[in-house]
Amino acid sequence: MQIRKLFTSIIFLAIFSFITSCGAQGNDTSSEAKQAAKDLPVDTALQQRLKDFATRPRPTGKFAFHVYDLTADKPVYGCNDSLALPSASCMKLLTGVAGLHLLGTNYYYKTAILTRGKKDGNGTLQGDLAFKGSLDPQLMPVDLNDFSRFLHQEGIRRISGKLYIDLTIKEPVKSEKHWYPWDLTFSKYGLFYKGEKRVLTALKASLRAQGIAIADSQVVTARLPKGFQCRHIFKRSIDDVIKRMWKNSSNTQATALLYTIGHRANPHAFPVDAGVAYLRKFLSQDLQQNGKGLCIHDGCGLCTHNRLSPVALTAVLRYGYANGAIRSSLERNLSHAGIDGTLAREMTGQKLRGKVRAKTGTLSHPYGISSLAGFCEGPDGHTLAFAIMDSEMSVLDARVLQRKFCEAMVIDKKRPS
Known about the structure:
Layout: H1 2-38, H2 44-55, E1 62-69, E2 74-79, H3 91-103, E3 108-119, E4 124-132, H4 145-153, E5 158-159, E6 163-166, H5 196-209, E7 219-221, E8 229-237, H6 238-247, H7 251-265, H8 271-286, H9 310-322, H10 324-333, E9 335-336, E10 356-363, E11 369-377, E12 383-391, H11 395-410
Parallel strand pairs: 4-5, 4-6, 6-7
Antiparallel strand pairs: 1-2, 1-12, 3-4, 3-8, 9-10, 10-11, 11-12
Helix pairs in contact: 2-11, 3-6, 3-7, 3-9, 4-5, 6-7, 7-8
């Protein structure tokens, strides 16, 4: 019996030693793989093409770019790449990556209807009803019918107590002080960004349309008291917001995400101020970008006082690329050259179509501002992060420069295609 136990113990120790050895070998292999990646060379032909591009004659105006080899984890080439320039909508890259970092890629906006009490046989809720809003930027008045229909299907026709409405923000969204008057398209904002009165009016109208009697005297706007039970909830993924913000360059979605970031970072402060403060902190501390002249005033890029540099933008992309979940969002939601989003009509030729994934930035006032930042694959198979920024230049001229810049990154005329 003792011999059998001894034999079993020996076998167990041998198996454990083998597994441990395999695990150690796996770690060594991983470390070796990382080291091998760092030992990869940067494409010298690409460096030369970018150098040639930087020295060619071009339209007058401010001009800067930076290219980083993500595969080799090394910078490739830059021209004026630390120069802080107006970023336009490329600011949305910073807002999106910072938001996904803070909130998580699995974050959901949640809007709910709740009850406290029981329904009697006459369709009266003997108690209170509550509506808890969110910062969902895509919820419109018609979407409230989803909640009203649920209550109708539950047989509720009136309430004996109060209707509590709990909103995250009560004031309507306002223009940033440096935005131009026409930049705030108020009608395109979601219901929760149009102010308390609009929410109350829309909710009461929706309930009454479903035959649920609500008197104005029953309505109370306040934080939700204790004792309520969630009855129906609507969720919207942050990915829906990021998609519109990046692929379609939606200013309303970017501003809403700034509110969301600010409310999470500091729920006791005004969301825009707290959101901008968080973006500045993220840029400085997480991305280690403290260059002279870098400035953040909003989350969407409409403010002409915003300043980022090509190095700062590629730092945003590098940070997102290093995080698997954020990388997936970037790959999914950035525009593809010649295919969709704001790049659907740009770089449509065979040389570049589908080979560049990027965020555009364009402002035609007070002078031409155009930027482009994203990813592409170099001729050597390496993934590149890039940013090119132009200002005080015709937007049309800037786009021609951006196309030629992308061609320099993607195409090596000396290599067989």
